[in-house]
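To whoever is covering the structure queue this week,

Two jobs came back overnight. Logging them here so there's a record in the thread.

Job A:
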Amino acid sequence: MEKQTFNIEIEASPEQVWDILLGEQTYPKWTAVFAEGSQVETDWKEGSKALFLDGKGSGMVAVIEKNIPNKYLSIKHLGEIRDGKEDTESEAVKSWSGALENYTLQPVNGKTQLTIDMDVTEEFKDYMADKWPKALLKVKELAENQNQSTG
């Protein structure tokens, strides 16, 4: 596995960006870039299980490794879900099980620098390089539009 990093500067506070990333209403909007109908089942607390679902019974099973509100979130991927069943044991899953997906939010001159760094296999390198910049633009759009409507 290798690490990929993506970042974007957003004209909103870290708190606002955090709310967009994890919000029940906004999470499906920015993650639709990866899979239409995306949803997550978790309470986002450290040690909690997280199910990242595509709305069709497939997705990823993970655990929240670290959560420092408005600053840092680390998700450890454990396996996948196919047809509603969790798989953390197959050889296909073991090649990337334990991969981390980290979100870092840093205030910079009244804006927020959002950085995503993640472990990725060769198989998904191009996919992530294509999808993450689009997802980050959606987060930026949601956060800045929320900023305009409340500010």
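Job B:
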Amino acid sequence: MSLATDSLIDEASRPLVSRGTARDYYELLKPRVMQLVIFTALVGMLTAHEHINPVIGFASILAIAIGAGASGCLNMWYDATIDSLMERTSKRPIPSGAIAPGEALAFGMTLSIGSVLFLGLISNWYVAGFLAFTIFFYVVIYTMWLKHWTAQNIVIGGAAGSFPPMIGYMAVTGSVNLETFLQFLIIFVWTPPHFWALALVKSKDYARAGVPMLPVVAGEVATRRQILIYSILLAPVGMAPALFGFTSLVYLVISAVFGGIMIWLAYDLSRKLEGDAARKASYRLFGTSILYLFVLFGALLLEEVVPFIPWRNLI
């Protein structure tokens, strides 16, 4: 047997070892999205107004976070080819070669199954089923189907990212209520203007990858118009928790002010049709939309954790 043959046999029998670092695997979980999931799920959990065992509460939030990370990981696994064609995503762990697709699939599936089972054991099986449905919705309905089929992908698929407040509440109560549905609705209506503002800037990336995002299919003018429509709709939806009597006058004022800011920025974007001004207006709306959601849910969180504040019952 030749030395070359021996070398090939040794190479084939050598155990496969991942080249990915802990940081690469962490990036597979889409940590920025996970932070939003943790925050909104916590608000939903505290909305239950029931005693929460700290250990069970922490473990439930951890399971929800892991489930969200698993969704992100499976999304990156399926969209690895698309990610490699887009400047914004080309340096992600799979297209960069740090992690093999098979490794990402195994990692995502393990986390998905583990998070659902753990949440069921630590909390209740109703919320575990809801988490499983959310992972399925994001990975199969959105990533594998809607994203490649319709320009309304982010509108329908945005439901997956809107479920965490309801999941957090269900982890405590085993059910959902109107208050957490309104929180779901805020995120659901917020998602299109938030995501389309970024898609306007990255439309060439999406066109190159063959993804039918709204700016690619309908054009930039139509996308700006849709952003303005959704921003106008978002304002009353953001105020809904106060209008239904769940929060204070302070929350109503905060949501009204930030809703007005979103409308103004969307209107400003609709007037800047090209060039650097349009690009800056898109980024300004995108960044402000992130602040909008954290401010509103931060106000909701404050009212839940500080129940004795003097303004709570002013409505």
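Note for Job B: The chain has 15 helices and no strands.

Please reply-all if you pick these up so we don't duplicate work.
Q.
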